[in-house]
Design goal:
The protein contains 8 helices and 9 strands. With 272 residues, the chain is of the alpha/beta class. The strands form 2 sheets. Strands 3-2-1-4-5-7-8 form a 7-stranded mixed beta sheet, covered by helices on one side.
């Protein structure tokens, strides 16, 4: 058995790569070169929103470095590819030759149907959000914005053409703690999920027959990139001062634990 891993190249992606490599199977790792982690604010923003933009993304970078930078797999272990190479004929040929048992993706652009059809193994994706409730983009931001920070989590699901819509194999969610900031929740969600991956992958791949995921009862919601606006930062940092978890505790907002979906035999939990 072998794994082809396709990720982005940010610290959290390298952290996941290290954990996948710890499962004991041969891993061929492709790292897609992604956008800069602290993007330049749009020119049309006013001074207040520019400041909030810089504050938000600087905090994200600070948390990312704190939680992952020194613990991820070094990028020189990966085959570096650009976005235009991801679904190229050359990449499809490489995957076809490797014929992995599992193609696992996280943090890369969408894989083409042609790439997914070029080998006979399974294809699973790691999604930074709890599907089906938080599918799509920026899905570690919206739970806090919607005053349900306990829904900040991660999903391992079958890769399909639907956006984060494949049947669910495994999920974890954070348990909010007083003092948690938005990016703390996001980074801890990633780290706690990744720390279980060696056991999860070992358990799932040990089955004689391919494992079938759980079909979500609800279709949930797809959060698109267009839904997010810099003005949303006014709520998180202006109104709540990045203390949404504390506000939920202090104001009596109930935070019932997320109802996680996991296939039979996976009783591992990263949320404590």
């Amino acid at each position: 058995m072998s794994i082809v891993l396709i990720t982005g190249d940010h610290p959290r992606h390298r952290y996941l790569a290290r954990q996948v490599m710890a499962c004991g199977l041969p891993v061929t790792w492709f790292a897609e070169r992604r956008e800069h982690f602290t993007p330049t604010p749009p020119a049309q923003l006013n001074g207040r929103l520019t400041t909030l933009w810089q504050h938000h993304f600087n905090l994200r970078d600070e948390c990312e470095q704190h939680y992952f930078a020194t613990q991820g797999a070094p990028l020189d272990m990966a085959i570096s590819i650009g976005p235009s190479e991801l679904n190229s004929p050359e990449m499809i040929c490489r995957i076809s030759q490797l014929q992995p048992t599992l193609l696992l993706s996280y943090g890369c652009h969408k894989l083409s149907p042609e790439l997914l059809r070029c080998f006979g193994g399974m294809a699973w994706n790691v999604h930074g959000g709890l599907s089906p409730w938080y599918r799509g983009c920026i899905t570690h931001f919206w739970p806090s914005y919607m005053l349900e920070p306990q829904m900040t989590g991660m999903t391992l699901h079958e890769t399909t053409e639907a956006i984060d819509g494949g049947n669910v194999l495994y999920q974890t969610a954070v348990t909010p703690r007083r003092g948690d900031r938005l990016h703390d929740l996001a980074c801890r969600a990633v780290r706690e999920f990744c720390d279980t991956l060696p056991t999860v992958l070992g358990t799932l791949l040990a089955h004689e027959q391919p494992v079938s995921g759980i079909v979500p009862i609800s279709s949930g919601r797809i959060w698109t990139a267009r839904m997010w606006q810099p003005q949303h930062l006014e709520v998180v940092y202006g109104q709540f001062e990045d203390k949404i978890v504390d506000y939920c505790f202090d104001s009596g907002i109930t935070m019932p634990p997320a109802k996680l979906l996991c296939v039979d035999g996976l009783d591992i939990t990263a949320s404590r």
